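Box S1 | Example of a co-folding query
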Amino acid sequence: MASYRSSNDVTLVEGTKYPDQFADFLEFLCEKYRMDRSRLFVEYSSRPPPPLKGTRAGYYEGLLSYREKSGHSEFLITVFKASREPLLTLAHEFAHLVKNLKSGNFDKHLGPPDDTAERTLDNQAINDLAEFRELDRLS
Ligand SMILES: [Zn+2]
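Box S1 (continued) | Returned holo structure for zinc ion
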């Protein structure tokens, strides 16, 4: 994936400046869930976040996208700067990715949020962040 800076400061993957602890937390998640780092790209984006689909007001704080490239799959997690808790947003999207990889289902893309599933992933994200902070405190 190419990296460049444009004049309107769209931040793309490499060259992205992550918030505090973001990169360490990403490493932690990759290790915990044995994610192949070479297939995962994470951007912290200053673009305006897309509004939620469905009837609810609000916007997406993060997105997970997926593409096939020469026979293997690549994943992109976008965390928007508008996110109130970038680390939790990262963990939440990561949880989607882990779930999708387990089920092999990547179809439900940007549908209206499924509240029960979202809450489960939120809880997983909160636990992952707490575990990371605990390790960080002990080191
Ligand atoms: Zn979600």
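Residues 51 and 59 are 4 Å apart (CA to CA). The pocket of zinc ion is lined by residues 92, 96, 118, 121 (CB under 6 Å).
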